[in-house]
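== Sequence and structure of one protein ==
=== Format: two labelled lines per protein ===
==== Data for this protein ====
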Amino acid sequence: MIETMTGKSAFGVVGLGVMGQNLALNVERNGFPVAGFDLDGAKQRQMAAKAAGKNVQVAGSMRSSWRRWSRRAGS
């Protein structure tokens, strides 16, 4: 789902081409919540489809990505 994100992620990926998508999915598979962003709307939608049901969120804007990547205090 492409959205404005309000939660926190442990890992962020800027650029959701082939390498960025695979990196994000690998990190999620190893137990970390992931946020991703790409300027290309088609790549955003492709990643959102691949990540359905996983702990990966695709941001619709860089601003929401930045908020998502901000680390929680004490973590």
The mean pLDDT is 82. Residues 2-69 form a domain with the Rossmann fold fold (CATH 3.40.50.720).
